[in-house]
């Protein structure tokens, strides 16, 4: 049976332990995703407390990280989602995403509505990918793909 968390504390505590184990074992998120059988983005989000893992994936991840059965069970619970508190993020990487939405949020909204109509882009029926590519002008660039199903507003 699927269970849900009402308080994010348990999953936050587990996330801290999981990241500590990942660091001690010198594992990458991709290596953890490989044992889960799921995408690196989904697995990372789950380990960080934002998604529930299927039973087999939760057990495999817990085993790889050296976490106990309680941790494997907790990885299967539906979390209280949302890792950013009600304040402006202070972590520089997260803040840049916040800044991007501050600058381009209304543009994204206008373009989505113009192309699709009144509605939203799902964060549930959703895929995320991050790739590192060479910058022709030197250095590297991040290509971040947000792939969500469009859900139209339905008058009732």
UniProtKB/TrEMBL annotation:
Catalytic reactions on record: cyanate + hydrogencarbonate + 3 H(+) = NH4(+) + 2 CO2
Gene3D superfamilies to which the protein is assigned, alphabetical: Cyanate lyase, C-terminal domain (3.30.1160.10), lambda repressor-like DNA-binding domains (1.10.260.40)
CDD domains: Cyanase_C (cd00559)
InterPro entries found in the cross-reference section: Cyanase, Cyanate_lyase_C, Cyanate_lyase_C_sf, CYNS_N, Lambda_DNA-bd_dom_sf
Alphabetized SMART domains for the sequence: Cyanate_lyase
Keyword Transferase: no
EC class of the enzyme, as a word: lyase
Domain Cyanate lyase C-terminal, residue spans: 83-156
Pfam families cross-referenced by the UniProt entry: Cyanate_lyase (PF02560), CYNS_N (PF21291)
Keywords (A to Z) from UniProt: Lyase
One GO MF term attached to the UniProt entry: cyanate hydratase activity
Record-linked HAMAP family: Cyanate_hydrat
Family to which this protein belongs: Belongs to the cyanase family.
Function summary: Catalyzes the reaction of cyanate with bicarbonate to produce ammonia and carbon dioxide.
Protein name: Cyanate hydratase
């Amino acid at each position: 049976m699927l269970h849900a968390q009402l308080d994010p504390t348990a999953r936050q505590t587990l996330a801290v332990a999981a990241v500590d184990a990942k660091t001690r074992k010198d594992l990458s998120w991709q290596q953890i995703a490989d044992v889960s059988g799921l995408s690196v983005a989904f697995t990372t989000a789950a380990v960080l407390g934002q998604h529930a893992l299927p039973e087999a994936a939760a057990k495999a991840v817990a085993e790889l990280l050296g976490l106990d059965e309680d941790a494997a069970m907790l990885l299967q619970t539906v979390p209280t989602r949302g890792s950013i508190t009600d304040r402006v993020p202070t972590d520089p990487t997260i803040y840049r995403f916040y800044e991007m939405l501050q600058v381009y949020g209304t543009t994204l909204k206008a373009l989505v509505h113009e192309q699709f109509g009144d509605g939203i882009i799902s964060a549930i029926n959703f895929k995320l990918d991050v790739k590192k590519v060479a910058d022709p002008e030197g250095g590297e660039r991040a290509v971040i793909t947000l792939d969500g199903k469009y859900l139209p507003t339905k008058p009732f």
